[in-house]
Amino acid sequence: MLSFEIVTKPGEREYNEDYTGARKRGSAYCFVLADGLGGHGGGDEASRLVCECILQDFAKNGEASGEYLSDCFEKSQWALLERQKKQRRMREMKTTLTVLLADADRIQWGHIGDSRIYYFQDKKLKSRTLDHSVPQMLVNAGKLKEKKIRGHADRNRLLRVMGIEWDEPMYEVAQPIRRLGGESFLLCSDGFWEWIEEKAMQRLLKKAAHPGEWLSMMEQAVLKQGTGQHMDNYSAIGIFL
Q1: Alpha carbon 180 to chain centroid, angstroms
Q2: What CA–CA distance (Å, rounded) separates 174 from 177?
Q3: How far from 224 is each of 115, 161, 187, 191, 221, CA to CA, in Å?
């Protein structure tokens, strides 16, 4: 049994540069979430392009494997670079990307940028992806406390994104986990996690009967904290397995 819900909103911005999606192939699922960079017409096109590239390919060839997950990043990166060159918009069209794959036996995920994947087991937080950002680098070096990432002056300075040419992969693929039941995942853009802390995510997860309820309660918390603060676009995918 797998259930999920998606929310994506412009926040207090005129345009929504986030893009989300889900696709099923046999017993396997693919979830994608991206946060475009570069302004309207650049960032939104980049996020949509990489997500649709992956979802369309998954419908034909998808499986929940590390090799296929790497292909998701590589193929969508190539497609984005080709679009940049064709439109001569190398500076504008960039995006973060998170991808989660799941079938009856295993779960696999990867990311690039500062959109996050949170992994909960039996309604307790197990791990989250680490941002490819300046504040996260400072945390990793012991120069900044993790709780200071939110609201940091350099939080939007990203070190790795889709749409920048690389000699070696810049995305990260987590070790796969066996699907035992009781897993929950949250994929979200920085416009979402900026306004809700992990303790609140977990507390609301314990109250939620289904992903829609979980996202609804978290969205209320996000709006309570962020409204009037020049809120960015915010998006999230909640998944119960």
Answers
A1: 23
A2: 9
A3: 21, 29, 20, 13, 5
Q: Could you list the mean pLDDT of each consecutive 10-residue stretch along the chain, which spans 241 residues?
A: 96 95 97 89 93 98 96 97 88 93 97 98 97 92 89 88 93 96 97 97 98 98 96 97 96
Handedness of CA 64, 68, 70, 76 (dihedral sign): negative
Residues paired with residue 185 on neighbouring β-strands, in sequence order: 119, 239
The residue to which tokens 């809700």 are assigned: 196
Beta strand 28-37 pairing with 106-112: unpaired
Q: 63's torsion region: left (phi>0), alpha (psi -120 to 50) or beta?
A: beta
- CA torsion sign for 160, 47, 216, 105 is negative
Q: Identify the CA nearest to 96 among candidates 233, 240, 196, 239.
A: 233
How far CA 215 is from CA of 42, 171, 204, 209, in Å, comes to: 28, 26, 9, 11
- First-last CA distance in the chain: 6
Q: How far is CA 161 from the centre of its chain?
A: 12
Cα separation of 4 and 102, whole Å?
12
pTM of this structure: 0.96
Contact 41, 16 (CB under 8 A): no
